[in-house]
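#random but structural
TW: two for the price of one
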Amino acid sequence: MLAKPTDYLTADEMRTLRRKSDIVGALLVLHAWGLILGAMALFAWWPNPLTFVLAVMVIGTRQLGIAILMHDAAHGLLFDNRRLNDWAGVWLCGAPVGASMALYRPYHLTHHRRTQQPDDPDIGLSAPFPITRVSLRRKIVRDLVGSTAYQRRGEQVRRAMGPRSRTLPARLASLLRGERDFFITNVVLLAGLALAGSWWLYPLLWLLPLATWYQLVSRIRNIAEHAVVPDNDDPLRNTRTTYANLLERLFVAPYWVNYHLEHHLFLFVPCWRLPAAHRLLLAKGHGPKMELRRGYIEVLRLATSKLVDGPRDPSRQRGIQHI
């Protein structure tokens, strides 16, 4: 459910926090792609197991990062210029990782209106928790071996192709239309790497991180945001902010995604201003009433506090495939 920003902020504070910036938006997008290409270049220059694992982790987290920047664009917050905001949100952020901003925007706004309620479209991401540590380990293994990505992309492809009753050419044409932006951006990335003489970096350090580390950090992000919150009806406690140290920001939680409670309270605040919103809430004495955790390890311990697995509910299993 949506909170009223005026319950927490003055008009002047809201005016300051809602200010967007084309320069900051451009720097965030450049930062994400700079780290992706820089990690590729590091491995190409110094190939060894350490730089390979490091590159997969950095790139997978920045793939989540550009998805987060698409999320900001879906709220109209990445750039002050609306046309630039929507163009960058589609072509530089969402499409390269297979996310459609056009489909995501209405779905996500419904999540904000109905947070942690039975008709929240994201309720399946938090409802199964807490789970056991064994269950989480199984999920992590599925993420890191590519099983989660195979399942998720398979679902997306099947939806894009439409019903099996249609002819194969019609289904393929539908797939091309539905996945057009993903195909275009990935062909451009592959072509750019090929022109640089390193086409092999595309499957090794774009598709592989997308199929593995990106899946894992997306799961951790979703768990941290709403799983095992103390009160589904209280806007200060049905969403969580997780403090993140430098390593967590580099490998798990890019671009202030950890300030999720502030994002839910103030939909008009760009991601880079969320820490300022957090400080204001603390200064006004709201801290004790907020769902705050000291790090992602603490959140995962809370989310795995169940001692024994019960019988599997197929409907709940379908919901958590998207974590």
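TW: number two ↓
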Amino acid sequence: MKRTRSQTKSNSISNNNPQPQIKTLISSKIPFPAKKIPKLTTKKPILSPSSSPPPPPPIAKPLSSTGELETALNHLRAADPLLSTIINTFPSPQFSNKITPFFSLIKTLISQQLSNKASSSIENRFISLFDSQSSILPNAVLSLTPTQLRELGISGPKSTYIHDLSTKYANGFLSDSSIIEMDDEMLYEKLTSVKGIGPWSVHMFMIFTLHRPDVLPVGDLVVRRGVEKLYGLKGLPSPSQMEVLCEKWKPYRSVGSWYMYRFVEAKGVLPSHTT
């Protein structure tokens, strides 16, 4: 049977080049319902009215709590044989300071970049302005003018720092009770917002005033020097190296750091029976 010219042309299109037909179908105005693509989200699910937020992390017992220091020493002896030698060489630390957090922070600001003798003299003159240490309260400190503070030997910048700390206490941003109840992370954030208080000051405050058990002052030169000598390093460890090297001390890095002070004071010399 003979094929017509139109039949031949139609078969050629359908067999060899189907694209025009597909394009015709796609471009036809057939109403398809639009599909909604769900959006990805990283938002936390909304808690139902009956749900409650997760509790805050518990505050570790202070080292001045009954039995806590002994527990810390036993842990460190088992975790680090080299540190165990240091612990057995020096007397145990004492954490029994009864000073209030507020006055302790004022002492921190006064003593910056001063010798112990000079800072002690200024602190005594500062205390003499009050009936007793218990009467050293934020509003009372705010009543002291910069001139009065300078007459005690407190520099202009330090006077500003002391007033800023007292203001943050007076307006409720800080308080002795809230400081005691804050976890380490929140406490660090709050205290470093006070003028003149940096990371090192916060770490010292946490160890020696609040007796927090797991503080590692990675920027403290003496502690870094102690770690260098203890582990026979060729130079001072960086903050990140300190974190790695002292990981085994957790959760009692405050006590390990305290022993680094004693170790450096003793010229970093281990007893002769160690290698």
